[in-house]
From TrEMBL:
Keywords: Cytoplasm, Lipid biosynthesis, Lipid metabolism, Phospholipid biosynthesis, Phospholipid metabolism, Plastid, Transferase. It is found in: Cytoplasm. One of its GO terms (biological process) is fatty acid biosynthetic process. The gene is plsX. The keyword Chloroplast does not apply. Coiled coil: none annotated. HAMAP family: PlsX. It catalyses: a fatty acyl-[ACP] + phosphate = an acyl phosphate + holo-[ACP]. This is phosphate acyltransferase. Its main location: cytoplasm. GO terms for cellular component: cytoplasm. Homodimer. Probably interacts with PlsY. It comes from Paulinella chromatophora.
């Protein structure tokens, strides 16, 4: 019996259908009971089980669903006593015991967790926190990627302290996938919160990082790179934009197509959009509100009475589909680009669907060997 199983035994013997964001996975992932994937083909993902508003129970629920849909194995890092209570509350004992028996999940005990309100530097003091242990699993090669829905500042700090930056990268950036007019296309926006104040050289590096991710993971052959600005002309914008534009224009390794106004971010005319973390985070939070606000407006505008009910019945399915396309839960997380390892940062309010989506993102990044090209980029010593 493994050390992890012994730990679980000591604590007590406990331990929907496929949705749109998984449609492009290989057909084998739809089979029941762990989808028939060969054990050797599964990738290990480390999960910070204590990160997020609904952790650890909902995070575990999402992980167990992911094991049925994706070719993964999970090393779940959590405070065992708290996890046991959550497992009992959500009636996940049977599924967890089955996954443990099949060797698809391991439980790894952690120490005091890092709260959503803690300073990022708390990762140094709480060295046995679940975020740190998950990062160490990536560093030591026991996991190909890690996922956390916890304190995003702490995740980034832990990644820098534990994994380190890629050589030549001054600041890692958080890249999030936004929907576009084309249901089959997404646009990568970075940075969406890691760096509030940026230099032109940082945005130059973000463009190079985003280009690799879009090409390798999203399978865009020649990603179109845009710079967020208030106008299309190269003479528009603040000092940051004016100094960044010529750097991107002169960069031969990317296909820079010019400035991207706010109205064009979701147009489908760009594959990667670059901005400072303050601007990107405002866009991300705004987008999160659009789906629910749109539904509320339509509900208010529909006629009342029998006509309104009939119209709602016809529109309901389409409206739900629109909301899903705009819902951050369908994408689940954002990739931290520029660290020396794959880290996916989930929304603090992530529930099971978001967890599955984020784990799919982590799997995709690891499966397409995005780190190989990122490491190659770092050897070029970009500045």
């Amino acid at each position: 019996m493994s050390q992890i199983s012994e730990t679980v035994k000591h604590q007590g013997d406990f331990t929907q259908s496929v949705f749109d964001c998984l449609k492009h996975m290989p057909a084998t992932v739809y089979d029941n009971h762990y989808n028939g994937t060969n054990d050797a083909d599964r990738l290990w993902i480390a999960v910070d089980g204590m990160g997020g508003d609904y952790a650890p129970g909902t995070i575990m629920e999402g992980c167990l669903r992911a094991l049925e849909l994706l070719p993964l194995k999970i090393r779940f890092v959590a405070e065992i006593k708290i996890l046991k209570l959550a497992i009992d509350k959500l009636n996940l004992e049977f599924k967890l015991n089955r996954a443990l028996k099949d060797g698809l999940i391991e439980l790894i005990p952690s120490g005091e967790s890092i709260g959503m309100g803690d300073e990022p530097t708390t990762v140094r003091r709480k060295y046995r926190a679940s975020i740190n242990i998950a990062m160490d699993l990536v560093k030591t090669g026991k996991a190909t990627a890690m996922y956390s829905a916890g304190n995003s500042g702490a995740v980034m700090a832990s990644a820098i302290f534990r994994l380190g930056r890629l050589a030549g990268i001054d600041r890692p950036a958080i890249g999030a996938l936004f929907p576009t007019k084309d249901a089959t296309q997404q646009v990568l926006v970075l940075d969406v919160g890691a760096n509030m104040d940026c230099k032109p050289s940082y945005l130059h590096q973000f463009a190079l990082l985003g280009n690799i991710y879009s090409r390798d993971v999203l399978q865009v052959e020649h990603p179109r790179i845009g710079l967020i600005n208030i106008g299309e002309e190269d003479c528009k914008g603040n000092e940051l934009c004016l100094k960044t534009y010529p750097l991107l224009q002169a960069e031969s390794r990317i296909h820079f197509v010019g400035n991207c106004e706010g109205r064009d971010v979701l147009s489908g005319n760009f594959d990667v959009v670059i901005c400072d973390g303050f601007t990107g985070n405002v866009m991300l939070k705004f987008l999160e509100s659009v789906g629910s606000v749109l539904l509320e407006i339509l509900k208010l505008e529909l006629p009342r009475g029998r006509r309104g009910k009939l119209g709602s019945a016809f529109l309901k399915r389409n409206l739900v589909r629109i909301k899903k396309r705009l819902d951050h839960a369908e994408h689940g997380g954002a990739l931290l680009l520029g660290a020396n390892g794959i880290s996916v940062i989930g929304h603090g309010s992530s529930k099971a669907l978001s967890v599955v989506s984020a784990l799919r993102l982590a799997y995709s990044a690891a499966n397409y060997n995005v780190m190989n090209d990122l490491e190659k980029l770092s050897t070029e010593c970009i500045h």
